[in-house]
Amino acid sequence: MIFPFVWSLLPGPVWLRVALLLVLIAAIVAVLFQWVYPWFSVTFDIQDQNVEAVP
Amino acid sequence: MTASVQVPTEPGPPRPGRAGIGTRLIALVGELLIIAGAVIGLYVVWQLFYTDVIAGKEQEHVLETLDWAYTEPIVAADAEEDAGPEVIPVGARMPPESAPVMDEPAFATTFATFYVPRWGTDYVKPISEGVTRAEVLDVLGIGHYPGTGMPGEYGNFAISAHRTTYAKPFNRIAELERGDALVVQTEEAWYVYRVTDDLIVYPTQVEVIAPRPGEIGAAPDGYYITLTTCHPMYSAAERYIVHGELEYWAPTGIGVPPEILEEIPQP
Fold it and tell me: How many contacts, defined by CB atoms under 8 Å, are there between A and B?
């Protein structure tokens, strides 16, 4: 459903589609690593090493 | 009879509209699950490996910008006696009572470096003001609890860092033994602390970073350092705490404390 849709959306011959797909995946991974994961990790406090407040 | 069988002249791709609604729904759910699996798997890769790479680079860069920090290869000379860095003479060791205490710097300012020979003679990490994750701990490494003592202060110099991920400055905290040196350098002075105690507490037990460790509201009674980090590893359920006390201080510019050159066998 999603994958065939994306495939049909990409233009050009197969080799170009594959190349575009790799670029798309790399861009998604970059966005996840740069912004989404840091935000998630800090917001949900997955690992915090501070004692909770300063006396 | 064969003539009546319809043979498609061109075998085209199956049209998406042909599948039933149930089949399409299941296909969609399956694809979403594949994507979710990839996103979660990538999160693990990011957390366990990528944060180390990025934070490690950042912390090395911060060290390079501190022109006063000692970041030369910290190795005692193996072959020649004079090849190593100059060592602070015993006579220049000053008692804790006369230690200079710097003012607390602005948030996220790097003001000291940290050396722990137990973690290898090449261990040197920056210490910065503040203990928030996004601004200090995830990028700059070790953070200083605002409001606690500064290095050499009569009270408790309390610092915090990641034990796993983000270049894991306190990764090997459980290897510290009583009497191990914890060395802090500021622009003005070297401070040599010795480990006195380690304990595991709940995150709510803030008394560990009180001026007199363990007693909230009590007047300080020594020159303490306190390290706090996660426990167990990869969890935030408890905190691993290491306390130490100041042994001596010495001004910078006359050499390095011999403690940071001490080669302790690494596991």
Answer: 87
Does ipTM top 0.90?
Answer: no
Sign, Cα dihedral of A50, B50, B142, B119: positive
- For chain A, how many structural domains are there in total? 1
Is A40 an 8 Å CB contact of chain B? yes
Beta bridge partners of B226: B158, B243
Interval B24-36: pLDDT, tens: 999 999 999 999 9
| CATH numbers and ranges of domains, chain B | 49-261 (2.40.260.10)
Distance separating alpha carbons of residues B196 and A37, to the nearest angstrom: 38
Which domain covers residue A14, as residue numbers?
2-43
Instruction: Provide the 8-state DSSP code for B256.
Output: B
- Run of H or E including B159: strand B155-160
CA distance to partner chain A, nearest, from residue B203 (Å): 5
Q: How many CA atoms lie within 13 A of B129 on its CB side?
A: 15
How many Cα atoms are found within 13 Å in the side-chain-facing hemisphere of A44?
A: 8
Task: Identify the closest residue of chain A to B168 by CA–CA distance.
Answer: A49
Q: Is residue A55, in this structure, part of any structural domain at all? A: no
Q: Model-level pTM?
A: 0.84
Pick from A1, A46, A52: CB nearest B203: A52
Query: Which tens digit of pLDDT belongs to each residue from B224-260?
Result: 999 999 888 888 888 999 999 999 999 998 889 989 8
Position B262 pLDDT exceeds 60: yes
Nearest to B239 by CA among B158, B146, B136: B158
A55 close contact with B: CB closer than 8 A: yes
Q: What share of chain A is helix, strand, coil (3-state, %, to 5)?
A: 70, 0, 30
